């Protein structure tokens, strides 16, 4: 393990020493981890232990309050940044830990599983995956200036791809970046569902630099930029979206109207942006799968604890198979999705050095994992609420928050239906339906 200790010495060295993790229990029951950890690497288990120690400083009451007041969990973000965890999957030469998506997925799962839920994960999500294309294709100035500031927590970032009029049809997005005489660009268009834009200093922006009608393929003519979000500059407006779950982190519509960005903001080659962001898409699917798993395990642990302690008709309700069997079924679904998730993460990491691993195989594994984990999480969260009965509707028991948040990995960053389209086409060789 010595090869990865230096970048985060304080965090990881401490993680390797015996410690007592002070657990803040759930609102009415003691926290109990139920995921089987056999088969994980020492690195993954060390990450799980160390991140759990940080998460234990933020009890469920912290997340309840942030959710209800719609307040950014800046203290949580700062705590993770302090020990270098935001750079977990970034190169050591840029201040990162040099670990893989396998370890980053474990970190994100540990966060949601701690009770932080999707809000906790989303507060750092883009900082982990959106920086992957930058780390691989950025120039020296971008790497030396931007990445260390993101890892340290000084700057936060967001990912600007989704648009209201194109949705998942990314190749036909309408935001344009028009070249100016000084080499910079003028950006005009609209992005939507941009997480953490209110608190972000940087945005990874995908925009069209060559009109669609002038390219041979729709995948051409898009460029990726790492831009400043200057709220005082002309041509930028952001509007917060009121939403059902994950209220502690903001989601936004972002409007550009002749917003000026410099030539130094371009990442990689002009018109090659779609190929560049593909580098981060499979990684994000792995991270989302881990986040969904953690949420599902957290909900299921709550449900099992309640079923053991809640007595009706002079017996704990967990004795009733109508309670026990749905929970057992939910556990097995989570365990199966866990295997798919970490298989995909392992493939992603191995493909960097093993050229025999095809990228389409990584894509199939990552998309399948995201689908299965999201479905398993939904099952666990819904059954957790039903196990609690009327109290499942109460904020203090947390499961209502988990249920609201578990819809996120089912919808984003790609829907269940589009994943099934992808598997139908790529694996089963069925005709493309879109």
CATH superfamily of the largest domain: Butyryl-CoA Dehydrogenase, subunit A, domain 3
Please tell me the overall pLDDT.
Answer: 92
Per DSSP E runs of 2 or more residues, the count of β-strands stands at 10
Percent in strands? 5-15%
Secondary structure category: alpha+beta
Number of helices: 13
How do the SSEs run, as a string of H and E?
HHHHHHHEEEEEEEEHEEHHHHH
Share of residues in helices: 40-55%
Named CATH architecture of the largest domain: Up-down Bundle
| CATH top level assignment of the largest domain | Mainly Alpha
Q: Indicate the CATH topology of the largest domain.
A: Butyryl-CoA Dehydrogenase, subunit A, domain 3
Shape: globular
Distance between the termini: 46 Å
InterPro entries: Acyl-CoA_Oxase/DH_mid-dom (IPR006091), Acyl-CoA_Oxase/DH_mid-dom_sf (IPR046373), AcylCo_DH-like_C (IPR036250), AcylCo_DH/oxidase_C (IPR009075), AcylCoA_DH/ox_N (IPR013786), AcylCoA_DH/ox_N_sf (IPR037069), AcylCoA_DH/oxidase_NM_dom_sf (IPR009100)
Family: Belongs to the acyl-CoA dehydrogenase family.
Keywords: FAD, Flavoprotein, Oxidoreductase
GO molecular function, one term: flavin adenine dinucleotide binding
Please characterize this protein's 3D structure.
Residues 271-427 form the Acyl-CoA dehydrogenase/oxidase C-terminal domain. Keywords: FAD, Flavoprotein, Oxidoreductase. Its cofactor is FAD. The protein has 434 residues and is α+β, with helices and mostly antiparallel strands. It has three domains: 42-152, Acyl-CoA dehydrogenase/oxidase, N-terminal domain (Butyryl-Coa Dehydrogenase, subunit A, domain 1); 157-271, Butyryl-CoA Dehydrogenase, subunit A, domain 2 (Beta Barrel); 273-427, Butyryl-CoA Dehydrogenase, subunit A, domain 3. 48% of the residues lie in helices and 13% in strands. The chain contains 13 helices and ten strands. It has helices at residues 9-16, 42-55, 60-69, 74-82, 101-129, 131-137, 140-151, 273-309, 321-350, 359-388, 399-405, 408-411, 416-426, and strands at 157-160, 176-179, 185-195, 202-208, 222-228, 236-240, 251-261, 266-267, 311-312, 315-316. A four-stranded mixed beta sheet has the order 1-4-5-8. It has a four-stranded antiparallel beta sheet with strand order 2-3-7-6, covered by helices on one side. The longest helix has 37 residues, at 273-309. It is globular. 47% of the residues are buried.
């Amino acid at each position: 393990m010595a090869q990865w200790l230096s970048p985060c010495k304080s965090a990881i060295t401490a993680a390797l020493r015996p410690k007592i993790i002070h657990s803040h229990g759930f609102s009415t029951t003691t926290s109990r981890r139920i995921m089987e950890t056999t088969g994980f690497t020492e690195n993954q288990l060390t990450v799980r232990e160390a991140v759990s120690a940080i998460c234990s400083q933020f009890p469920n009451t912290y997340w309840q309050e942030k959710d209800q007041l719609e307040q950014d969990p800046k203290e949580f973000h700062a705590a993770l940044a302090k020990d270098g965890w935001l750079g977990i999957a970034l190169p050591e030469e840029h201040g990162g830990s040099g670990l893989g998506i396998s370890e980053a997925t474990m970190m994100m799962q540990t966060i949601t599983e701690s009770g932080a839920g999707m809000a906790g994960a989303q507060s750092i999500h883009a900082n982990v995956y959106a920086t992957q294309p930058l780390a691989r294709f950025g120039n020296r100035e971008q790497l030396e200036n931007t990445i260390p500031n993101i890892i340290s927590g000084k700057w936060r970032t967001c990912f600007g791809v989704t648009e209201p009029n194109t949705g998942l049809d990314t190749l036909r997005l309408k935001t344009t970046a028009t070249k100016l005489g000084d080499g910079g660009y003028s950006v005009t268009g609209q992005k939507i569902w941009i997480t953490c834009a209110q608190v972000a200093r940087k945005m990874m922006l995908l925009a069209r630099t060559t009109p669609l009608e002038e390219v041979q393929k729709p995948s051409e003519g898009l460029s990726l930029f790492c831009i400043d979000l200057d709220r005082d500059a002309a041509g930028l407006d952001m509007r917060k979206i009121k939403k059902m779950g994950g209220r502690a982190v903001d989601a936004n519509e972002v409007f550009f109207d002749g917003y000026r960005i410099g030539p130094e903001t371009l990442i990689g080659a002009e018109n090659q942006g779609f190929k560049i962001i593909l580098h981060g898409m499979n990684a994000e699917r792995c991270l989302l799968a881990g986040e969904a798993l953690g949420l599902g395990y957290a909900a299921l642990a709550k449900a099992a604890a309640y079923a053991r302690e809640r007595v009706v008709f002079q017996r704990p309700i967990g004795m009733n198979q109508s309670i026990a069997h749905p929970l057992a079924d939910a556990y097995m679904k989570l365990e199966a999705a866990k295997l798919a998730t970490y298989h995909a993460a392992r493939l992603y990491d191995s493909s960097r050095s093993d050229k025999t691993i095809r990228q389409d195989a990584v894509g199939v594994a990552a998309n399948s994992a995201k689908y299965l984990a999201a479905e398993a999480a939904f099952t666990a969260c819904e059954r957790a609420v039903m196990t609690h009965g009327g109290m499942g509707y109460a904020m203090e028991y947390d499961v209502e928050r988990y249920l609201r948040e578990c819809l996120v990995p089912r919808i984003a960053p790609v829907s269940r239906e589009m994943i099934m389209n992808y598997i139908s086409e790529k694996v089963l060789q069925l005709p493309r339906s879109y």
